[in-house]
Design brief:
The chain has a six-stranded mixed β-sheet with strand order 10-11-9-12-13-14, with helices on both faces. A five-stranded mixed β-sheet has the order 3-1-8-5-6. 21% of the residues lie in helices and 23% in strands. By secondary structure, the protein is α/β, with parallel strands linked by helices. The radius of gyration is 31 Å and the shape is elongated. It folds into three domains: 6-157, Distorted Sandwich (Spo0b-associated Gtp-binding Protein, Chain: A); 162-326, P-loop containing nucleotide triphosphate hydrolases (Rossmann fold, 3-Layer(aba) Sandwich), CATH 3.40.50; 353-419, GTP-binding protein OBG, C-terminal domain (GMP Synthetase, Chain A, domain 3). The protein binds guanosine-5'-triphosphate and magnesium ion (MG).
Amino acid sequence: MQFIDKTDLKLKAGNGGNGIVAFKREKYNPLGGPSGGDGGKGGSVIFEVDTNKSTLLDLRFAKAIRAKDGENGKTNNMYGASSEDVIVKVPLGTVVKDLDTDEIVADLNTLDSREVICEGGKGGKGNYHFKSARNSAPDYCTLGEPGQERNVLVELKLLADVGLVGLPSVGKSTFLSVVSNAKPEIADYPFTTLKPQLGMVKVDDSSFVLADLPGLIEGASEGKGLGHEFLKHIERCRLIIHVLDMGHEDPITDYQVINEELKKYPGNLEDRPQIVVANKMDMENAEENLKKFREHYPDLEVFETMTLINEGLMPVLYRAKDMLKELPQFPLYDPKKAEEKVVYKYEKPEDFTIHNEGNGVWRVEGEKIERLFHNTDFSDDDAVLRFSRALSKMKLDEALREKGCQNGDQVFIEDYSFDFVD
Ligand SMILES: Nc1nc2c(ncn2[C@@H]2O[C@H](COP(=O)(O)OP(=O)(O)OP(=O)(O)O)[C@@H](O)[C@H]2O)c(=O)[nH]1
Ligand SMILES: [Mg+2]
């Protein structure tokens, strides 16, 4: 099985339902008032952490996710129904990036992380909203707003406090399986673990996330074995538990091989604090190997374990807990960097474009402005007023001026034209 930790997706929130134009037509009230109801809100696309998930595999098959549109308004001032949000369950440590703006829209790094990635469009207003003293029978309404759309890159950066690192088959998965609820695959052949697996480890009243990683081998940092792809997952581990198989011929060399790989990988992994665990102390030559190891590294603290029978692990967990207290978190995106600080901000796409057609003639195009245009009854003064207010709210006059439009120039929106008055 392949480990998927990156996938791109098209997301689209639902459009808001349109408001409608309707009038009461009651038998005894022929001049009944406006009664067009509001459109409902479109569904949003929301990402939520689910600790049962450890990969983005589901999303790879999704490719596109969209929420439903809100319902249009109904007669008798009745609202159209809002649509349900689409909740996308993702593993802890998922980062969502907008591919068009390069902006990080969400960093789901806590167990209760939940982020709206695409906001559903607001519903339009029915004509009863526009009833006024001047116009008791408005025959216009507004359309629903479009739901937000994004092309995103969804990336999983494992978010473990502690990572289990070592050669294949030294007992890393066995370690995780006895100290957490995780159920990693364990077997006596190398590269049993193909994808990182996370477990929650409870020590007294605190807990930390422990990652079981695929085995590293010599040359991993140059892409050998499975190690290379996963070394990057260690990047955010604040602490490494370095597991050695004391039944091996030469644990000293094993220890050095792994440290050398950590060193070669960019990101100063060799400086990451380590707890050294001498596992498989039940093996024949283990005692003797440990003795040699200790002689070679007299200042190194070494914990003796037999992960298979859950022996000697508590002291390791306590030491990890104590060390974590002092170790800083590694934020994925440094909040101190101003350019990366703009998170969760949605830039509205341009409302319109302006074309200079020469001889003082300008043309304005844009979905929103054209919709507004179609929605306006130009024989109704109120509606025209609303239209021009909407245009100034969109800062059309400013934009025209900026482009060089001058007093008296003619501005077209579809086949409607007006004179530009600065
Ligand atoms: N004798 C002995 N065997 C152990 C001990 N701990 C684990 N094993 C065995 O070692 C083998 C490998 O264990 P795993 O936990 O799968 O090793 P791993 O480090 O996760 O291996 P990879 O996923 O391939 O990198 C299994 O057969 C385990 O039963 C131990 O304390 N003593
Ligand atoms: Mg394993």
